[in-house]
Amino acid sequence: MSLAAPTSLAALPSPSTAVWQLGPFPIRAYALFILLGIAVACWLTERRLRQRGAAPGATLDIAVWAVPAGIIGARIYHVITSPAAYFGTGGDPIKVFFIHEGGLGIWGAVAGGAVGAWLAARQLGIPLTVVADALAPGLPLAQAIGRLGNWFNNELYGGRTDLPWGLEIHRMDGGQALRDEAGQPILEEGLYHPTFAYELLWNVGVAALVFYLDRKLRLGRGRAFALYVMGYTAGRFWIEMMRTDEANTILGVRLNVWTAALVFLGALIYFLRVRGPREYLIPIGVPATPTAPTATSDVSQLDLSAKQGSTEPAAPEGYRVVGEEEFQHWRETGETPPGPADDDTGPADGDSPESAATRPADRDT
Fold first, then answer.
1. CA 296, CA 215: separation in Å to the nearest integer?
2. How many Cβ atoms are within 10 Å of 213's Cβ, its own excluded?
3. Measuring CA to CA, which residue among 201, 256, 264, 258 is closest to residue 231?
4. Which of this chain's residues are annotated to bind a 1,2-diacyl-sn-glycero-3-phospho-(1'-sn-glycerol) (predicted)?
5. How many Å apart are CA 241 and CA 230, to the nearest integer?
6. Range 321-334 burial, b when 16+ CB lie within 10 A, else e
7. Which helix H or strand E contains 172, and what residues bound it?
8. Cβ-contact 288, 280 below 8 angstroms
9. pLDDT for res 337
10. What are phi and psi of 212, to 5 degrees?
11. Percentage of the chain surpassing pLDDT 70?
12. Strand 25-28 and strand 172-173: pairing?
């Protein structure tokens, strides 16, 4: 990374290089930060899923579906909301597939990723609400890290400013800053609001808020994820209005501002209407190793010893959704609580773990 000399002492510099060549292969800062964000989100989600009873590696099984689906969804949203660059006058439709040139929409990423996570969760027998709540603080951290890619690309900045943290912007071409006759990177005139940095800091705050309230209130039924959505969209609403990059508008207001407002409203309604304790998982077909774990332990209590006649580790056949007291009792004793056939308090016959976790009786109507 090379940084040009700032135009004043009170200015934030920008990188003049966003792409490096490793032989014939381009290494793009934007892609690196996206991948780093995904890795951080997966690590944190894995810890939180294991605390809720999922077998080790469940996050990777889910990510195999959710990450590609999220990228596809993000690209589809970008193309739909910015069609002129691909299908308008002078547009090139083949560039729809040039993801490496940028153009991913967070709204499409969340929607596409949710579909992929849902498909994977069904295969694993884990309710989607459990996955969503486990992901809730990791997703804004991933978004925060990904915004550093915008800094390297010298993009997604706001209007002119004379604030001490005003951002210098290079004139970029192909991932490199254009240079003058003296070989110095060419800067745009003046300083600009670093809106990507505003969103980065806001997302870190959202992650901290979700983590704190989830731990304090023991949120369940997808409410931790709804809290993340509310926090993120509240910030995106005002940050989006500061941006100056081209965007489609409705009634003179950027499309993403309307989207943020509507998604916030939907998340708020969900958060207020849905009730129920946090969901925990007891695996089916895999015995527990009785221990006395701490409340924050991320060590799995499953006995993943080799199957009879096989060197491959055992894997749960599915999961039962239980409350916190039942889960703690199972971890400490290895005794599985009574199932639907043993008492009248469990899910009705034929209920899947996912449907049992979202039955109407669990909702505040």
1. 10
2. 17
3. 264
4. 147
5. 17
6. bbeeebbeebbeee
7. strand 172-173
8. no
9. 80
10. -70, -50
11. 81
12. unpaired
Cβ contacts of 280 within 8 Å, gap of 6 or more: 52, 53, 321, 322, 323, 324, 326, 327
Would you give the DSSP letter of residue 286? S
The one-letter amino acid at 308: Q
User: Taking the CB of residue 189, how many other CB atoms lie within 10 A of it?
Assistant: 7
The two tokens of residue 204 are: 């870190």
What's the pTM? 0.82
CA angle 304, 309, 312 (to 5 degrees): 40
> What's the half-sphere exposure (Cβ side, CA atoms, 13 Å) at 26?
12
Q: Which amino acid type is present at position 136?
A: A
274, 361 Cβ separation under 8 angstroms: no
What pLDDT, on a 0 to 100 scale, did the predictor assign at position 341?
A: 47
Give Dmax over CA atoms of the chain in angstroms. 82
Position 149, amino acid: G
Contact present, 50 and 299 (Cβ < 8 Å) = yes
Dig out the tokens for 72 from the structure.
């596809």
Binding site, by residue number, is 147
- Residue range 208-240, pLDDT digits in tens: 999 999 999 999 999 999 999 999 999 999 999
Q: What is the DSSP letter of 244?
A: -
Residue 270 in tokens = 């969900």
